[in-house]
């Protein structure tokens, strides 16, 4: 069989940079193309559609190792095979395919090994026919050896590619990365594996598609209030059919309307082709530092994964302008959760299929449709002279740009803050195929539960602040400094909630069932607890009691009761009314870890002390609770960002009053921050709007609150009373408490060095939580 070009050129093709997985994928593309053609024609296909990859084993010598790709497709005739292995050959159907043999076949096989055998047969053919391409033997006569093999069954059909004399480095990678290859291919071909009856196997194990863990089609958030309220869905389906255009069958270039010859290669074979942009944009159920962005596909294969280029904007009127990252901007170090899957079958891709041709106008048109022309954020669009962006992506950014817990941004929480670490663990279980985590019900329950706990806390605070007594005494009691005696308060706290009288002694199981019925889940503490070094774990379902007291098997009150169930599962009941939690300020997670450590110590017969086990469990299983500068700083920045926006909104009643409070150095810092964020404004116009507060130094926010408390207290931004009480001392106490918490939060966010002392970190973390409790409800 004659092949073109020479063996020397073929050997040079092997030097083209392709990763090992890309080499395998090039050969898989051909099999999936064949399967797609069969299904398109509606041909009944016995035995199904299956492509299998066999990798070199560590038990086989390198000289005998090989990679084998086998498919159950139609097979090829001798003439088609001869074209298929010829470098540079392409088909007239190039627009509907992932990629035919031709150059991609030669590059991928030459990069993996020095000898390739291709065998193929069709149903009814008497034998397997093929060709052996040996780069060490083929000369400049372009002749490769024909080969044949007998068939055991005349109905056999398909193609087999055997690559041997593997390059040592690539053979070693393939030996070590079986699972990695399977996972990578599961992501690249996820849409095909989910939407077509095709199977992909690697080393005898079926490749599973890597689906997106996104919110359901019916979830949404409400942006704005009153008549301006807008429902923004967490899933936006996209199907835009563009006008058909002429394309060149020789080079694949799209043509300008009216062209009779190709502007790229002067070819005359121009045919009209469909152009369609379809797929979806949406919101992931969890926040991730790397895995967010948009997947772009061509003919079902992912070309770009987690692409974030559409979140960037560059001013076309300023060639020297830097790229402006528009999402994520709220705590960008924590990542994002906007995702999507967009099919661009009409847009050309690079040779390696790892990018689109970004200079092509069809790519630019798709970008414009998805994200619009101007900036995504309304204020940035206005400052740059653009109308408000109404694109699909701008709508999602507007509705979901923040990650605050609750219904407003569709973020799970524990009643006081988001539970990002926990939702990422739930996503891992989604990807592992756990049935319970396939729908978004668990995430949704955590959002609703957070809202309920938050409202209950606000109601409790409102009751505390109700001036049923002289207002100073009311505020004192709200601050925990009331006139009620310590004995009376202790009596109130210690007074048990009366239990219903029982006619018969309650069994242990009845008591546990009663606790289950009178409790609610604690998502932050419901997870796997254990140490990798021990190799032992407990799957804890943490539940907080409501309206009943917790007792152990001996009738003694206890703050935590750990009930072991079958296997490694256990339920941890928590009594928030227990003295240790209600009065002594001990965190419930501390006591839970002690109980878990005791069980693990016995189960593993560990020599570690309980304190060592508790410390290890906290570091591995509750990393967010450890007082790290990064963790506390992130919590503080997220909270302060929310407070800035709320205070800016309230200050719009008189922005000049707030602007006058800026000192010269604070004004300079504010302008520098505006410039750094791409929001350049002159000093003369800066005070016309209260938006400058969002960019002002952190400690200026404290000064603003202390100088203008009646604008932000009394439920405007903070729930603490101010104008609603008449006593000057009560006002000072209420304002001092809120301002003190705010000072701690502003300090940790306002200086690059931050707070490093463990005691100061603990104080700051407590201030973050207490200040979050002080925030008034939005509406």
Low-confidence stretches: 88-95, 483-494
- The total strand number stands at 22
Radius of gyration: 33 Å
Helix content: 25-40%
Shape estimate:
globular
- Beta fraction of the residues? 15-25%
Structure description:
The chain is of the alpha+beta class and 779 residues long. Helices cover 38% and strands 19% of the residues. It has 26 helices and 22 strands. The strands form five sheets. It has an eight-stranded mixed β-sheet with strand order 5-4-3-6-2-1-7-8. Strands 11-12-17-13-14 form a five-stranded mixed β-sheet. Strands 18, 19, 20, 21 and 22 form a five-stranded mixed β-sheet that branches. It is globular and about 100 Å long.
Key features?
single chain; eight-stranded mixed β-sheet; 779 residues
């Amino acid at each position: 069989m004659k092949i073109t070009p020479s063996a020397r050129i073929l050997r040079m093709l092997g030097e083209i940079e392709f990763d090992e997985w890309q080499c395998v994928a090039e050969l898989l593309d051909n099999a999936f193309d064949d399967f797609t053609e069969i299904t398109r024609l509606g041909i009944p296909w016995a035995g199904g559609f299956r492509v299998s990859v066999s990798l070199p084993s560590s038990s086989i010598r390198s000289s005998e190792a090989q990679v084998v790709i086998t498919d159950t497709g139609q097979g090829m005739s001798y003439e088609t095979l001869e074209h298929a292995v010829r470098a540079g050959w392409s088909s007239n159907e190039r627009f509907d395919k992932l990629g035919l043999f031709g150059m991609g076949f030669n590059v991928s096989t030459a990069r993996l090994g020095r000898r390739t055998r291709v065998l193929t047969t069709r149903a009814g053919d008497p034998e397997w026919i093929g060709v052996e391409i040996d780069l060490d033997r083929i000369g400049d006569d372009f002749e490769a050896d024909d080969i044949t093999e007998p068939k055991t069954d005349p109905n056999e059909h398909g193609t087999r590619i055997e690559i041997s004399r593997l390059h040592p480095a690539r053979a070693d990678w393939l030996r070590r990365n079986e699972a990695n290859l399977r996972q990578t291919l599961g992501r690249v071909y996820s849409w095909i594996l989910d939407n077509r009856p095709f199977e992909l196997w690697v080393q005898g194990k079926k490749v599973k598609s890597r689906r997106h863990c996104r919110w359901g089609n019916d979830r949404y958030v409400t942006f704005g209030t009153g008549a301006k309220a807008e429902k923004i869905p967490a899933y936006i389906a996209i199907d835009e059919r563009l006008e058909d255009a002429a394309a060149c069958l020789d080079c694949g270039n799209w043509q300008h309307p009216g062209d009779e010859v190709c502007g790229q290669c002067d070819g005359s074979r121009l045919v009209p082709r469909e152009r369609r942009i379809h797929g979806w944009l949406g919101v992931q159920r969890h926040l991730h530092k790397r895995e967010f962005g948009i997947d772009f596909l061509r003919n079902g294969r992912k070309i770009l994964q987690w692409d974030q280029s559409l979140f960037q904007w560059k001013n076309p009127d300023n060639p020297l302008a830097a790229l402006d990252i528009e999402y994520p901007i709220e705590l960008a170090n924590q990542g994002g959760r906007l995702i999507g899957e967009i099919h661009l079958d009409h847009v050309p891709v690079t040779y390696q299929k790892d990018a689109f041709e970004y200079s092509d106008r069809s790519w630019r048109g798709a970008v414009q449709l998805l994200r619009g022309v101007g900036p995504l954020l309304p204020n940035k669009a206005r400052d740059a002279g653009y109308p408000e962006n109404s694109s699909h992506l701008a709508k999602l950014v507007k509705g979901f740009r923040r990650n605050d817990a609750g219904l407003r941004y569709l973020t799970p929480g524990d009643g006081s803050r988001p539970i990002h670490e926990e939702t990422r663990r739930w996503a891992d279980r989604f990807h592992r195929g756990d049935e319970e985590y396939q729908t978004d019900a668990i995430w949704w329950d955590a959002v609703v539960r957070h809202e309920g706990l938050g409202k209950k806390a606000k109601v409790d605070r409102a009751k505390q602040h109700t001036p049923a007594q002289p207002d100073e005494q009311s505020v004192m009691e709200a601050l925990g400094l009331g006139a009620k005696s310590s004995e009376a308060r202790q009596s109130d706290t210690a007074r048990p909630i009366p239990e219903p009288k029982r006619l018969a002694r309650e069994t242990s199981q009845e008591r546990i069932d009663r606790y289950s019925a009178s409790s609610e889940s604690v998502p932050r503490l419901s997870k796997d607890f254990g140490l990798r070094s021990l190799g032992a774990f407990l799957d804890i379902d943490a539940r907080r009691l409501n309206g009943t007291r917790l007792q152990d098997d001996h009738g003694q009150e206890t703050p935590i009761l750990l009930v072991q169930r079958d296997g490694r599962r256990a339920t941890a009941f928590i009594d928030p009314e227990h003295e240790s939690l209600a009065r002594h300020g001990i965190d419930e997670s501390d006591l839970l870890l002690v109980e878990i450590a005791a069980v693990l110590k016995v189960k593993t017969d560990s020599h570690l002390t309980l304190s060592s086990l508790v410390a290890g469990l906290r570091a591995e299983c509750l990393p967010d609770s450890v007082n790290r500068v990064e963790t506390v700083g992130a919590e503080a920045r997220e909270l302060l960002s929310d407070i800035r926006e709320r205070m800016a909104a309230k200050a719009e009643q008189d922005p000049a009053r707030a602007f006058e409070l800026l000192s010269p150095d604070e004004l300079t810092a504010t302008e520098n921050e505006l410039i750094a964020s791409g929001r350049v404004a002159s000093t003369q116009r800066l005070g016309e709007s209260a938006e400058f507060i969002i960019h002002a130094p952190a400690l200026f926010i404290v000064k603003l609150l202390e100088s203008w408390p009646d604008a932000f207290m009394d439920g405007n931004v903070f729930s603490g009373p101010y104008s609603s009480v008449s006593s000057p001392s009560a006002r000072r106490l209420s304002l001092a408490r809120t301002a003190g918490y705010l000072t701690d939060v502003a300090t940790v966010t306002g200086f690059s060095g931050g707070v490093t002392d463990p005691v100061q970190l603990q104080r700051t973390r407590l201030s973050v939580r207490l200040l979050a409790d002080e925030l008034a409800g939005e509406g």
